[in-house]
């Protein structure tokens, strides 16, 4: 009899332990400064407290874009755009570098959506304003956006400080950006979706044939002889695209705080043969150790994507 009770106790302990594991299987890593915690899943609910990075809280439940977190003394809801949801039990807690390599390896869309629950991150303290805008801005719905991940295949592009290839970074960036734009109703096309080589002319033919509303060619810069150089450049060619360049460039600078190297009119092939509104974005210097490390992080790519999204929304508004 005693033996039976002993086993029952052990089994209940295991049971309770696995339940608590299930409940606390996810953590929310706070990314937004002074992020509002509300007493319900929506901006219409009252703010009960604020949280800050790098705090981390167990996630109790999720509802749409909101996550209920356990603050110890109380519980409340945060917007997932300003936190990363980390799966404790997920065996694939691989480093960002590995994720990047995996993505480049397979070029598959599923890899991206697998990571979806990680949510967005924000560097913007003005979280309420964005939350409120979010629901009402439909300016991207049905817009055709062609994304051109620079280089690919035998053309690896620039080589980063760590030896990483520009062609892999541009592909991962385009995939994160696509996810963000699609979530806001855009029709997104990629000129390449894996490691293959795509000639410059077919990239633009693509955009012209699709009658894309905007074509964005994505690149990373490199000056190995000047490793301290960092920042973002945006290039446009046609005067028609000057405003587009200002909006998109401004959006990225706002969301990432990267060094602003400005916008410039430049006669680049992908812009010249493009009949659609188009930009070439140089999204940072992979010859700079910090900048290369930044772009290996999904949180960072999400901030950059959010900046591009905001710029496009302004453009189409
Ligand atoms: Zn390039």
UniProtKB/TrEMBL annotation:
SUPFAM superfamilies with a match to the protein in the record:
Zn-dependent exopeptidases (SSF53187)
The protein in question is named N-acetylmuramoyl-L-alanine amidase
**Gene Ontology MF term list:** N-acetylmuramoyl-L-alanine amidase activity
GO BP, sorted A to Z: cell wall organization; peptidoglycan catabolic process
The domain of life for this entry's organism is Bacteria
UniProt-listed InterPro entries: MurNAc-LAA_cat, N-acetylmuramoyl_amidase_3, SH3-like_bac-type
Keywords in alphabetical order:
Cell wall biogenesis/degradation, Hydrolase
Residue span of region Disordered: 86-135
Biased segments, Acidic residues type:
87-104
Q: Where is the composition biased (Polar residues)?
A: 120-130
Q: Which Pfam families match?
A: Amidase_3, SH3_3
Hydrolase recorded as keyword: yes
Where does the SH3b domain lie?
25-87
Transmembrane segments in this chain: where? none
Q: What Gene Ontology cellular-component terms does the record carry? A: outer membrane-bounded periplasmic space
């Amino acid at each position: 009899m005693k033996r039976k009770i002993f086993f029952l106790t052990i089994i209940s302990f295991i049971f309770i332990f696995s339940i608590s594991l299930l409940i606390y299987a996810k953590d929310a890593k706070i990314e937004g400064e002074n992020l509002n915690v509300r007493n319900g899943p929506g901006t219409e609910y009252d703010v009960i407290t604020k949280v800050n990075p790098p705090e981390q809280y167990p996630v109790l439940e999720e509802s749409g874009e909101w996550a209920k977190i356990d603050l110890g003394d109380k519980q409340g809801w945060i917007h997932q755009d300003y936190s990363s949801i980390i799966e404790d039990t997920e065996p694939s807690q691989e480093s960002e570098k590995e994720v990047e390599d995996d993505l480049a390896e397979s070029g598959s869309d599923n890899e991206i959506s697998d990571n979806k629950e990680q949510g967005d991150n924000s560097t913007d303290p003005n979280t309420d304003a964005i939350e409120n805008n979010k629901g009402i801005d439909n300016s991207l719905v049905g817009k055709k956006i062609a994304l051109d991940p620079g280089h690919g295949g035998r053309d690896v592009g620039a080589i980063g400080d760590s030896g990483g290839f520009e062609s892999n970074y541009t592909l991962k960036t385009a995939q994160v950006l696509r996810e963000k734009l699609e979530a806001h109703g855009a029709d997104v096309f990629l000129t390449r979706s894996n490691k293959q080589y795509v000639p410059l002319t077919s990239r633009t033919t693509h955009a012209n044939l699709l009658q894309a509303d905007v074509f964005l060619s994505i690149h990373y810069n490199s000056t190995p002889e000047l490793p301290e150089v960092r920042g973002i450049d945006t290039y446009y060619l046609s005067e028609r695209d000057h405003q587009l360049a200002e909006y998109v460039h401004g959006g990225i600078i706002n969301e990432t705080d990267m060094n602003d190297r400005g916008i410039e009119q430049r006669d680049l092939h992908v812009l010249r043969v493009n009949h659609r509104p188009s930009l070439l974005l140089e999204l940072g210097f992979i010859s700079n150790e910090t900048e290369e490390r930044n772009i290996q992080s999904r949180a960072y790519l999400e901030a950059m994507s959010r900046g591009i999204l905001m710029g496009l929304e302004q453009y189409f508004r």
